[in-house]
Amino acid sequence: MFLPSIPSQYVLRSIQLAFSLLLILFSFPAMAATPLSVDLTGLEAPFRQNVLLFLDINKMKNDEDLTPRWIKKLHQQAPQEIREALQPFGYYIPEIRSALIEEDGQWFATYRVDKGEPVVITGRDVQWFGEGMNHPALQQSIKDYLRKAGKTLIHAEYEAAKNTFMNIAFSNGYPKARFITSEWLVDLDSNTAKLTLHMDTGPLYYFGNITFLQDFLNPDLLTKYITMEKGTPYSYEALLEFQQNLIASNYAREVTITPRYEESLDQQLPLTVIMKPIAPHKFTFGVGYDSDTGIRGSARWDDRLLNRYGHHSELSVKLAWTESIIRAQYNIPVVKPLTDRWVSTASYEFDQTPDTSSATLEMETAFVRRNLADTLLYKGFVLASSEQFSVEGEPDENTALYSLGGTFRFSDTEESIFPQYGDYLFIDLRGASEALLSDTSYARLHMKGRYMVGLGKNGRIDTQIEIGTTWVEDFDMYPATLRFFAGGDTSVRGYSYESLGPKNANGVSVGGKNVVTGSLEYDHRVSQSWVLAGFVDAGNAYNDKLGDAYVGAGVGLRWLAPFGSLRIDIAYPVSESPELNDWRFHIGFGATL
């Protein structure tokens, strides 16, 4: 093959030309960047913010590729963008003075805006048509709108009204409701507007048959979660409640409900429910600390889909220096499965204090009803327990009890890391009889209450009370876990854990038949995460007469965090004429891992 020769001077010139082109290309972006500032005056919030969001020249003023030609084009379209930004607020004919100036390569765009007078609504034609046009709720929706509607054309109010109309229709059995005519006629010459809003309800639908598409739960169980009756008017609210209940059952991670309009007969609307199961196994861990129990940790395993009948089990372990608990629980949904459970529990608990120790084995079966928010609980139970307990200086005791009882718990607290209001009430009543094979007869009532109320923006008053009383046939056979004690982090601060109450001949606290304690605390939030506290606690455990009520007082510091809180209290045992070194520190920390 013949290749022609190329003179060397042409090669050199080609290389020089290529280098020149590369320099031009690499320097072009820096040359193209054009400084631009935008000044908008005459408008207050929220008009100003909305205009700036609409103005392309403002949004692109820092663009590296901005050129003078592009700036001029953006400036030309700016007045129209300003008008469009003001129209949702009812201002259709603003006065706009704009200017674009270039000085030494720097561009200045200025816009002086007088929004003028708003458009006044002079007429509204709002009507329902169709099968449900005379439905009382739909007619009332028009009356409510006309009564509340303002005289100025504001697009957001209009759109909100449209949503309200449709939601009312959907909630009253008309899921096919639609707008026939929806328009504003604005007369710029007179600065007035007229509204035409015509709506068609469509046919009235009723709930029909429900088909579940899933393979992990018994259909008979799922029918107990259906909250709407067949033949009642179709409602989005009822449908949403049904869906939320299925998710709250803790069996499904995803629930999709689809109406089958094409299969409806006589407006009976069938539904298809598709459910996807949750992960069967769940593991949780926790760690904490307080000065009564020391470092504590917990672990829990839930088997949430044990079988097709909705049974689930729990196994938990809690360990601390002064107490250890292992508990196994089996739950069966009954009656109203969303809130009701038949719960069987087996547990072993070991408690240790400097002067006492106890080991308790319990078997319990109970009916438990709690609401979805877990703020209300009712429990009726049968409890078999065997406890071995020892008190320093006294012989060991072994007691077997077969108890009947009930528990009530209510709580309502603001959802915040620093709640300023809250209520809590706990009542537990139980008893046993020697006639039913127990080693001794007893009846025991235990109540706790708490009330928080805000004081100013950053303060709150926190009050707590505990009352307990017991009748027992043979107190020596009455187990330590059922006796009442006082003193410690959550009782009368300034005194050690469970140190207050009746004592034996060796001066060891053995617990009493009764208890009364109360606490008054003021908390003041000094920053986002820190709270200062001042408190007074009082009370005692006793057998026949209260006698002395021990008083403790002090100050505290709280560190607030989303994952837990740190509590430090310095308390003074007022009732014992203490020395300076008798101040007690109470420390508590809780966190979920």
Give a description of the structure.
There is one protein chain. The protein contains 8 helices and 25 strands. The chain is an alpha+beta fold and 593 residues long. It has a 16-stranded antiparallel barrel. A 3-stranded mixed beta sheet has the order 1-3-2, with helices on one face. It starts with 7 loop residues before the first helix and ends with a strand.
Q: In brief, what are we looking at here?
A:
This protein is α+β, with helices and mostly antiparallel strands and 593 residues long. It contains 8 helices and 25 strands. It has a 16-stranded antiparallel beta barrel with strand order 10-11-12-13-14-15-16-17-18-19-20-21-22-23-24-25. A 3-stranded mixed beta sheet has the order 1-3-2, covered by helices on one side. Strands 4-6-5 form a 3-stranded mixed beta sheet, covered by helices on one side.
Question: What's the β-strand tally?
Answer: 25
General shape: extended
Return residue spans where pLDDT drops below 50 for at least 5 consecutive residues. 1-32
Overall pLDDT metric: 89
Return Rg in Å: 37 Å
Fraction in beta strands: over 45%
Please name the defining characteristics of this protein.
about 600 residues, 16-stranded antiparallel β-barrel, three-stranded mixed beta sheet, 8 helices, about 20% helix
Task: Please give the structural blueprint.
Blueprint: H1 8-32, E1 36-41, H2 47-54, H3 56-59, H4 68-86, E2 95-103, E3 106-114, E4 120-129, H5 136-148, H6 155-171, E5 178-187, E6 192-200, E7 206-213, H7 219-223, H8 236-248, E8 252-259, E9 268-277, E10 281-290, E11 294-303, E12 312-320, E13 323-333, E14 340-352, E15 356-370, E16 376-391, E17 397-413, E18 422-432, E19 442-455, E20 459-472, E21 514-525, E22 530-542, E23 550-561, E24 564-573, E25 584-592
Helix pairs in contact: 2-4, 5-6
